[in-house]
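Renewal narrative, Specific Aim 1. Our central claim is that a sequence can be written position by position from structural information alone. The example that follows is taken directly from our test logs and has not been curated for this report. It begins with the structure tokens describing the chain, in the order in which they were read.
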């Protein structure tokens, strides 16, 4: 494809040139020079079924030809009902009603507003505050950014953000409270949970509407699962203080971590579960929330049944038809079984890389949502300077070698901490995992060669 002469695109990075992708097939993307990239992060952990699936494209075209748009204030489509039914049946017990949005940020925004309306309608008008967690990500709209704890993304907009509170999530590998995870586990007493209760009491439970958390922290920490029992304690606190528990499964949903939703592994039932990315496997902008019956009953019994919210493209016919076609592929290809086979294999292979590279200090994650933490020296626990751009550099080298990963920074305290997410399409085969590991191995070797010339760096807090 010929490049245009004048560039009108407002790029993600205006100082960068991006490869132009012409097509994709399976786990591979191809650019206009013919270069092939193994998509080892499913784009942004979204292209969960890989690229170029004709049946999904055909379903999109069919729906677009029949009725591309109807407004959900007046009309609905069959595919809306069919997709809602499928998703509702996958969700935990009593979490049934599905509300669609176009992206994960909107889904979380909707969930936080719904929590507020639920309390207000039930005669608890003061409940409005949201508690989120540091080093968690819930989206880029003002509400979702306020609830999230991505320090870098928040900084530019600090004066615009809502006054929401934050606690630390359990990053046991480097506990922000300085505790040892074994002690917490033995005592079933986590400082991060105590801190949540203290925060609720400080704010006044009568003011707190919702607590929002990712079940496995994705982009901000690089696939960090919680210790067993943590979320049960969180659920208890939410019940005790009448706080809506929003579990953000935008990244983890639809089989990514080895179960339909990661909450199944946590053994808790959320009040609202948000989803995105995997629902359409990246083939259309589609996301949403699944809502517990108690909240729906509240809307019916305490108000006129209307959620005071909505988007033009909620339940867009082409988007929901895409979701339906994508879920058909998940079922047809038995994707969950593949995640549970390939996930542990990839994990093992990453542990082998850790043996060989002292710049890997941790391998973590569940299913095919895995992450590695990068440090300057594992033996002496020397961290990279943020200006080293370690994760980004490793990814740039890997892209030259033909694979793309999802780099991230600030995983430890918002500033320090470098990680790489490895989250290939859930349809990946063993030989393709071997290719990912081979390229990552090579990229890390080249990166370490480059490093030997640089000075060491101590953590700054
Ligand atoms: C856990 C989580 N929540 C919300 C979002 C925001 O979703 P979107 O970018 O579709 O608005 C993301 C995106 O990466 C995410 O990972």
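The sequence written for that structure reads:
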């Amino acid at each position: 494809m010929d490049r245009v002469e004048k560039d009108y695109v407002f790029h993600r990075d205006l100082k960068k040139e991006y490869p132009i992708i012409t097509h994709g097939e399976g786990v591979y993307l191809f650019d206009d020079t013919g270069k092939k990239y193994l998509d080892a992060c499913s784009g942004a952990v979204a292209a969960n079924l890989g690229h170029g699936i004709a049946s999904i494209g055909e379903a999109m075209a069919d729906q677009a030809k029949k009725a591309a748009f109807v407004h959900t204030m007046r009309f609905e489509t069959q595919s809306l009902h069919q997709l809602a039914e499928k998703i509702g049946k996958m969700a935990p017990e009593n979490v049934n009603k599905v509300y669609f949005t176009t992206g994960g940020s909107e889904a979380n925004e909707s969930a936080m507003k719904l929590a507020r309306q639920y309390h207000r309608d039930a005669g608890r008008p003061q409940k409005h505050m949201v508690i989120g967690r540091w080093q968690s990500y819930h989206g880029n709209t003002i509400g979702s950014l306020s609830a999230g704890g991505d320090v870098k993304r928040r900084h530019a907009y600090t004066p615009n953000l809502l006054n929401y509170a934050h606690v630390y999530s359990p990053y046991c590998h480097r506990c922000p409270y300085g505790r040892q995870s074994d002690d917490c586990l033995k005592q079933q007493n986590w400082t991060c949970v105590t801190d949540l209760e203290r925060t609720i009491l400080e704010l006044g439970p009568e003011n707190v509407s919702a607590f929002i958390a990712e079940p496995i922290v994705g982009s901000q920490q690089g696939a960090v699962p919680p210790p067993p029992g943590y979320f049960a304690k969180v659920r208890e606190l939410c019940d005790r203080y009448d706080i809506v528990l929003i579990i953000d499964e935008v990244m983890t949903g639809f089989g990514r971590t080895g179960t339909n939703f990661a909450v199944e592994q946590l053994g808790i039932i959320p009040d609202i579960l948000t989803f995105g990315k995997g629902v359409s496997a990246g083939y259309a902008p589609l996301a949403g929330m699944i809502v517990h019956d108690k909240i729906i009953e509240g809307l019916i019994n305490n108000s006129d049944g209307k959620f005071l919210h909505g988007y033009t493209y909620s339940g867009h016919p082409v988007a929901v038809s895409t979701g339906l076609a994508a879920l058909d592929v998940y079922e047809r290809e038995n994707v969950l079984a593949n995640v549970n086979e390939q996930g542990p294999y990839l994990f093992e292979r990453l542990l082998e890389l850790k043996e060989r590279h002292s710049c890997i200090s941790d391998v973590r994650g569940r299913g095919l949502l895995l992450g590695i933490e990068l440090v300057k020296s594992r033996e002496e626990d020397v961290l990279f300077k943020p200006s080293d751009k370690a994760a980004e550099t490793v990814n740039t080298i890997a892209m030259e070698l033909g694979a793309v990963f999802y780099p991230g920074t600030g995983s430890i305290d918002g500033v320090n901490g470098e990680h790489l997410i490895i989250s290939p399409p859930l349809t990946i085969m063993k030989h393709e995992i071997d290719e990912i590991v081979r390229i990552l191995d090579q990229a890390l070797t080249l990166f370490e060669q480059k490093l030997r010339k640089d000075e060491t760096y101590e953590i700054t807090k």
